[in-house]
Amino acid sequence: MHFLLKGCHNLRAHSPLFPYSSDDGFSVIDFKQVSPELGDWNDVARLKLSFDLMMDLVINHVSSKSLWFNQFLNQQGEGKDFFIEVDPAQDLSQVTRPRSSPLLAAYQTKAGENMYGQPLVPIRLILTLPTLQFCWPW
Q1: In this structure, is residue 25 part of a structural domain?
Q2: Are 25 and 38 in contact (CB under 8 A)?
Q3: What secondary structure does DSSP assign to the chain, as a single string?
Q4: Burial of 88 (0-12, 13-18, 19+ CB in 10 A)
Protein backbone atom coordinates (compact mmCIF):
# COMPACT_ATOMS: atom_id res chain seq x y z
CA MET A 1 0.00 0.00 0.00
CA HIS A 2 2.94 2.38 0.41
CA PHE A 3 2.91 3.08 -3.35
CA LEU A 4 -0.43 4.88 -2.88
CA LEU A 5 1.31 7.51 -0.75
CA LYS A 6 4.12 8.18 -3.22
CA GLY A 7 4.02 11.83 -4.25
CA CYS A 8 1.57 12.85 -1.52
CA HIS A 9 2.17 16.10 0.29
CA ASN A 10 1.26 17.52 3.63
CA LEU A 11 -1.15 20.17 2.42
CA ARG A 12 -3.29 22.54 4.44
CA ALA A 13 -5.98 24.53 2.66
CA HIS A 14 -7.37 27.63 4.35
CA SER A 15 -10.35 29.58 3.17
CA PRO A 16 -11.12 32.23 4.04
CA LEU A 17 -7.65 33.54 4.78
CA PHE A 18 -8.62 37.16 5.36
CA PRO A 19 -11.09 38.72 7.83
CA TYR A 20 -14.52 39.13 6.24
CA SER A 21 -17.94 40.59 6.96
CA SER A 22 -20.23 38.22 5.02
CA ASP A 23 -20.59 36.02 1.94
CA ASP A 24 -18.95 32.97 3.55
CA GLY A 25 -15.55 34.65 3.63
CA PHE A 26 -15.65 36.26 0.21
CA SER A 27 -16.46 39.75 1.47
CA VAL A 28 -12.92 40.63 2.54
CA ILE A 29 -12.46 43.48 5.00
CA ASP A 30 -8.65 43.64 5.02
CA PHE A 31 -6.31 41.89 2.58
CA LYS A 32 -3.32 42.65 4.82
CA GLN A 33 -4.60 40.78 7.90
CA VAL A 34 -5.18 37.11 8.68
CA SER A 35 -8.62 35.93 9.73
CA PRO A 36 -8.67 35.77 13.56
CA GLU A 37 -9.52 32.04 13.44
CA LEU A 38 -6.07 31.42 11.91
CA GLY A 39 -4.21 33.67 14.35
CA ASP A 40 -1.79 36.10 12.75
CA TRP A 41 0.90 36.04 10.05
CA ASN A 42 3.36 34.47 12.51
CA ASP A 43 0.97 31.55 13.03
CA VAL A 44 0.62 31.12 9.27
CA ALA A 45 4.42 31.21 8.94
CA ARG A 46 4.71 28.44 11.56
CA LEU A 47 2.22 26.32 9.62
CA LYS A 48 4.36 26.84 6.53
CA LEU A 49 7.27 25.14 8.29
CA SER A 50 5.35 21.85 8.42
CA PHE A 51 2.87 22.04 5.55
CA ASP A 52 2.47 23.23 2.01
CA LEU A 53 -0.21 25.89 2.23
CA MET A 54 -2.99 26.60 -0.22
CA MET A 55 -5.13 29.68 0.31
CA ASP A 56 -7.96 31.26 -1.63
CA LEU A 57 -6.90 34.77 -2.63
CA VAL A 58 -10.30 36.32 -3.40
CA ILE A 59 -9.12 39.49 -5.08
CA ASN A 60 -12.40 40.00 -6.92
CA HIS A 61 -14.43 40.49 -3.73
CA VAL A 62 -14.22 43.16 -1.07
CA SER A 63 -16.45 44.11 1.83
CA SER A 64 -18.47 47.31 1.93
CA LYS A 65 -17.06 47.52 5.49
CA SER A 66 -13.45 47.66 4.26
CA LEU A 67 -11.20 50.70 4.53
CA TRP A 68 -10.81 50.71 0.74
CA PHE A 69 -14.57 50.90 0.15
CA ASN A 70 -14.86 53.67 2.73
CA GLN A 71 -12.09 55.54 0.90
CA PHE A 72 -13.97 55.01 -2.36
CA LEU A 73 -17.19 56.43 -0.92
CA ASN A 74 -15.27 59.47 0.34
CA GLN A 75 -13.13 59.73 -2.82
CA GLN A 76 -9.85 59.83 -0.90
CA GLY A 77 -6.90 57.54 -0.31
CA GLU A 78 -5.81 54.63 -2.47
CA GLY A 79 -9.26 53.00 -2.35
CA LYS A 80 -10.91 55.81 -4.30
CA ASP A 81 -9.87 54.15 -7.58
CA PHE A 82 -10.51 50.51 -6.65
CA PHE A 83 -14.18 50.19 -7.68
CA ILE A 84 -16.33 50.42 -10.80
CA GLU A 85 -19.53 52.43 -11.12
CA VAL A 86 -22.23 50.79 -13.23
CA ASP A 87 -25.08 52.59 -14.97
CA PRO A 88 -28.27 51.03 -13.53
CA ALA A 89 -29.81 51.20 -17.02
CA GLN A 90 -27.13 48.86 -18.38
CA ASP A 91 -28.51 45.45 -19.39
CA LEU A 92 -26.96 42.96 -16.99
CA SER A 93 -29.53 40.23 -17.60
CA GLN A 94 -26.86 37.85 -18.92
CA VAL A 95 -24.83 38.05 -15.71
CA THR A 96 -25.26 34.92 -13.63
CA ARG A 97 -23.89 34.23 -10.19
CA PRO A 98 -24.71 31.91 -7.29
CA ARG A 99 -26.09 34.62 -5.02
CA SER A 100 -29.59 35.54 -3.92
CA SER A 101 -28.64 39.20 -3.35
CA PRO A 102 -28.94 41.75 -6.17
CA LEU A 103 -25.99 42.22 -8.51
CA LEU A 104 -25.91 45.99 -7.92
CA ALA A 105 -26.33 48.03 -4.77
CA ALA A 106 -26.82 51.78 -4.36
CA TYR A 107 -24.30 53.65 -2.21
CA GLN A 108 -24.11 57.28 -1.20
CA THR A 109 -20.80 58.82 -2.26
CA LYS A 110 -19.49 62.38 -2.20
CA ALA A 111 -20.79 62.61 -5.78
CA GLY A 112 -24.29 61.47 -4.72
CA GLU A 113 -26.06 58.13 -4.93
CA ASN A 114 -24.57 55.70 -7.42
CA MET A 115 -24.92 52.03 -8.29
CA TYR A 116 -21.96 49.75 -7.68
CA GLY A 117 -21.51 46.10 -8.44
CA GLN A 118 -21.01 44.17 -5.24
CA PRO A 119 -18.69 41.51 -6.68
CA LEU A 120 -16.88 43.59 -9.30
CA VAL A 121 -13.11 43.50 -9.30
CA PRO A 122 -11.45 46.26 -7.30
CA ILE A 123 -9.54 47.55 -10.33
CA ARG A 124 -6.26 48.62 -8.83
CA LEU A 125 -6.13 45.86 -6.22
CA ILE A 126 -4.22 43.64 -8.62
CA LEU A 127 -1.60 46.38 -8.91
CA THR A 128 -1.49 46.58 -5.12
CA LEU A 129 -0.81 42.86 -4.64
CA PRO A 130 2.99 43.12 -5.00
CA THR A 131 3.01 45.42 -1.96
CA LEU A 132 1.03 42.84 0.02
CA GLN A 133 3.96 40.44 -0.11
CA PHE A 134 5.60 42.52 2.60
CA CYS A 135 2.73 41.57 4.93
CA TRP A 136 3.42 37.90 4.37
CA PRO A 137 6.37 36.52 6.34
CA TRP A 138 7.60 34.12 3.65
Answers
A1: yes
A2: no
A3: -GGGGTT---EEEES--S-BSSGGGTSBS-TTS--GGG--HHHHHHHHHHSEEEE---TT---TTSHHHHHHHHT-SGGGGS--B--TTS--TT---S-SS-SEEEEEETTEEEEEETT---TTHHHHHHHHTTTS--
A4: exposed
Question: For the whole model, what pTM was predicted?
Answer: 0.67
- The span from the CA of 55 to the CA of 117, in Å, is 25
Residue 39 included in any domain: yes
pLDDT tens across 75-118, in order?
899 888 888 778 778 888 888 877 777 777 777 777 665 545 54
Domain that residue 77 falls in: 10-88+103-132
d(CA 128, CA 82): 10
Asked whether residue 97 is assigned to any structural domain, the reply reads: no
Number of structural domains, the chain?
A: 1
Q: Does the residue 93 lie in any domain? A: no
